[in-house]
């Protein structure tokens, strides 16, 4: 069964276990205490956990799927990793499911895998570890189709640390229970470390009943999926394709929508520009278009020109 399953199913099943292994690395680096912080730019830290988790993920996926294009946030990594970091086992429970017909015949050259080994690095270094996620996004022919969002520091009721959420368009989601956000309120989730005046102007027009400021694209989309917020607003460039590929696929597999602030989907082919230059707008209801229209034209034009 496992080796005969369609390629998308095998990539998803290996990505689930690889994201979990990366989560262990992220917890271990924090436990050991020396984060090895390097500044990649303004408000853009990288730690030993980002570097090591990326090596683990890309080495494992490359070994099993050598002809598939993989793009990671932390650039070209040394893939000569210890056996302990090489994940070869696929998640068997995931493989038992039926592959949606649309993806059954996808070939290696149709795929790009977008890896954010640690989303929410600023929050990781500041102790907001529950905001941290590992993101593995799978694009087929330009579109975000499948995604894994692993939360290394999520405390399960059993006491176990970490949980892994997946979504595949046409199949659905797993690893959590979707909840609808409360009716009669409008709660926005947005950045806590990359705001600016223009972005704030876009948030303000919604006149939200609450604005949650949290780290990471993965964590913000989880808040939408778990009914903590109605919309994710980020009206400025800054986040990248590896931030949105997995969250977009998981959210849309559950009926939500993730686009730029003009309501257009991003493309995820291998040559696309990495920056999401027109921001992010994500929602769970069926009023995405209305939300897009609320964003003032002057903000839209200024973000487009940045
Ligand atoms: N102005 C900016 N410069 C660099 N990275 C940015 C950015 N704005 C957003 N990002 C990246 O987008 C992700 C989500 O940001 P935020 O938490 O502010 O919503 C983070 O990913 P990483 O933590 O993986 O780098 C963050 O670094
Ligand atoms: Mg980063
Ligand atoms: Mg990120
Ligand atoms: Mg990252």
Automatic annotation (TrEMBL):
Molecular functions (GO terms): 3'(2'),5'-bisphosphate nucleotidase activity; inositol-1,4-bisphosphate 1-phosphatase activity; metal ion binding
Catalytic activity: adenosine 3',5'-bisphosphate + H2O = AMP + phosphate; 1D-myo-inositol 1,4-bisphosphate + H2O = 1D-myo-inositol 4-phosphate + phosphate; 1D-myo-inositol 1,3,4-trisphosphate + H2O = 1D-myo-inositol 3,4-bisphosphate + phosphate; adenosine 2',5'-bisphosphate + H2O = AMP + phosphate
EC assignment: 3.1.3.57, 3.1.3.7
Cofactor(s) essential for the protein: Mg(2+)
Keyword Metal-binding: yes
Pfam families: Inositol_P
GO biological process: phosphatidylinositol phosphate biosynthetic process
Record-listed Mg(2+) binding positions: 73, 116, 118-119, 243
Top EC class of this enzyme: hydrolase
InterPro entries per UniProt: CysQ/Inositol_MonoPase (IPR050725), Inositol_monoP_metal-BS (IPR020583), Inositol_monophosphatase-like (IPR000760), Inositol_monophosphatase_CS (IPR020550)
Keywords attached to this entry: Hydrolase, Lithium, Magnesium, Metal-binding
UniProt similarity note: Belongs to the inositol monophosphatase superfamily.
Name of protein: 3'(2'),5'-bisphosphate nucleotidase 1
Taxon lineage: Eukaryota, Metazoa, Ecdysozoa, Arthropoda, Hexapoda
Gene: Dvir\GJ24097
């Amino acid at each position: 069964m496992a080796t005969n399953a369609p390629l998308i199913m095998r990539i998803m099943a290996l990505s689930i276990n690889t994201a979990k292994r990366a989560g262990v690395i992220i917890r271990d680096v924090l436990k050991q205490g020396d984060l090895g912080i390097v500044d990649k730019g303004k408000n853009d830290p990288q730690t030993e956990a980002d570097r090591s988790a990326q090596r683990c993920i890309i080495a494992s996926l490359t070994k099993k799927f050598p002809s598939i294009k993989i793009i990671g946030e932390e650039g070209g990594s040394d893939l000569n990793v210890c056996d302990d970091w090489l994940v070869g086992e696929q998640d068997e429970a995931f493989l038992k499911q039926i592959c949606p017909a649309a993806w059954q015949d996808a070939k290696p050259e149709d795929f790009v895998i977008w890896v954010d080994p640690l989303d929410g690095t600023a929050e990781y270094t500041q102790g907001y570890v529950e905001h941290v996620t590992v993101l593995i996004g799978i694009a087929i022919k330009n579109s975000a189709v499948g995604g894994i969002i692993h939360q290394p520091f999520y405390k399960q009721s059993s006491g176990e640390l970490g949980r892994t959420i997946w979504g595949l368009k046409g199949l659905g989601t797993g690893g959590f229970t979707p909840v609808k956000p409360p009716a009669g309120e409008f709660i926005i989730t947005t950045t806590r470390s990359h705001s600016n005046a223009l972005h704030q102007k876009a948030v303000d027009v919604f006149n939200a009943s609450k604005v949650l400021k949290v780290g990471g694209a993965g964590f913000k989309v989880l808040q939408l999926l778990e009914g903590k917020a109605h919309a994710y607003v980020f009206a400025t460039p800054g986040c990248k394709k590896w931030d949105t590929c997995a969250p977009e696929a998981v959210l849309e597999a559950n009926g939500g929508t993730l686009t730029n602030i003009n309501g257009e989907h991003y493309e995820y082919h291998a040559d696309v520009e990495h920056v999401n230059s027109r921001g992010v707008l994500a929602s769970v209801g069926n009023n995405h278009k209305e939300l897009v229209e609320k964003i003032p034209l002057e903000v839209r034009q200024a973000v487009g020109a940045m």
